[in-house]
Amino acid sequence: MTAHISAPETKAAPAGPAHREVADAFDDFARTFDAFRQTNDERLGEIETRLQADTLTEEKLARIDHALDEAKGRLDRLQLDSRRPVLPSPARDRRDPALLEHKVAFDLYVRAGEAAGLKALESKALSAGSGPDGGYLVPETVEKEVLTRLADLSPIRAIASVRTISGGNYKRAVSIVGPASGWVGETASRPQTAGPGLAELSYPAMELYAMPAATQTLLDDAVVNIDQWLADEVETAFAAQESTAFVNGDGVNKPKGFLQAATVADGLWEWGKLGFVATGAAGAFPAANPSDTLVDLVYALKAGYRQNAAFVMNRRTQSAIRKFKDDGGTYLWQPPATAGQPATLMSFPVVEAEDMPDIGANSLAVAFGDFRRGYLVVDRAGIRVLRDPYSAKPYVLFYTTKRVGGGVQDFAAIKLLKFAA
Fold it and tell me: Among 53, 150, 268, 358, which has the highest number of CB atoms less than 10 A from its own CB?
């Protein structure tokens, strides 16, 4: 017997329209999952009694599954909008004179192309970031806001480790084989132990750009918050490119995605490769007990990593897994208990990354691991803007760049599910 999904408690939530919208969207999502569960139970009952499901039931389930994805997408968008803070305007932020001076100078540069104020500031700070060097640094508040929004929009960034650097390359040494150790008596001799085996990992920061355009009328409007406008314009472009690179990037002028790492069957795992568990069926889950492969994947990961692990997959793979039940008839995939929480699979969070491959022959469509320990995102400090009023007249282009890198940092922390025999 399936459990009823109750609507979230909203009595303590603020009574603003945004919070009511989120609560309504969550209620809609819960009702849609109830309908999905009932229809899938009906489909499974038909298979048990007639050895195949009715075509109309299959079509109904597909429609509800699509509606469930749309309801979840709407809920995610509303939650993101409700968490998005409004950047303060220069007139309201008087706490830091240096920050205020930078914001005023940057605002003048964006609106009118006057760069003297920014040049003076960067000369005073002995910065190499001048116009010929590729634009001017945005105010610190804008940079923080863009990175905060990227953490919400970019699924891998949200669960990975993120480190800020000042140079163009980050290198770290990792221990492949630890030093030998052992127990000895109080007066026994201490034999010399072998030294640790170290390897160096390198994460170069690659240039990512966006080029939002504005009319001069917009720029002349004093009511428009330029900082907010710029953050709004670049966030989606940056997030889309980052999301693709962190999953599938080849490392050439972009970060190296975790699916581009060398892979090996988990029983033969070695450092420098990601281990995979095969489903046992080419391009599909096995027909009998398909959820057993997910159990195998979970327990391929060491216990120390499982504590903070999450599943990563795209919505089409998630759609297939939603239908799985355990021996007691409980669905393995469960919707979020409250608004703002992720869906879970076998009690582990599910991260939806559309750049993950679909289920297919030899595809690595599901990843499971502690991405905080397994994948590193490197941000070079500073986002630059170069104003271009000439290339697309009458529009003004803003060539905005940031440098970011990424790659696997612990090859034992991530396991993959391979759809192969």
Answer: 150
- Residue 389 gets which letter from DSSP? S
CA distances from 264 to 274, 276, 299 (A): 6, 6, 16
Kind and range of the H or E run holding 148 = helix 140-153
Does residue 50 belong to any structural domain of this protein? yes
Read off the tokens for 339: 């608004």
Q: How far is CA 15 from CA 11, 24, 349, 353, in A?
A: 9, 12, 29, 32
Calpha distance 395→28 (Å, rounded): 42
Rounded Cα distance between 141 and 137, Å, is: 11
pLDDT recorded at residue 57:
83
User: Which SS3 state, helix, strand or coil, does residue 313 take?
Assistant: strand
The distance between the two most distant Cα atoms of the chain, rounded to a whole number of Å, is 85
Structural domain boundaries enclosing 49: 17-83
**Residue 224, number of CB atoms within 10 A of its CB:** 14
Task: Give dist(CA 217, CA 51) in Å, integer.
Answer: 66
Does residue 36 belong to any structural domain of this protein? Answer: yes
**Other CB atoms within 10 Å distance of the CB of residue 233:** 17
Establish if 31 belongs to a structural domain.
Answer: yes
Closest to 337 (Cα-Cα) out of 4, 2, 1: 4
Question: CA-to-CA distance for 78 and 395, rounded, in angstroms?
Answer: 31
Domain annotation covers residue 132: no
In total, the chain counts a number of residues equal to 421
Tens-digit pLDDT profile for residues 211-256: 999 999 999 888 888 888 998 899 889 999 999 999 999 999 999 9
How many domains are there within the chain?
Answer: 1
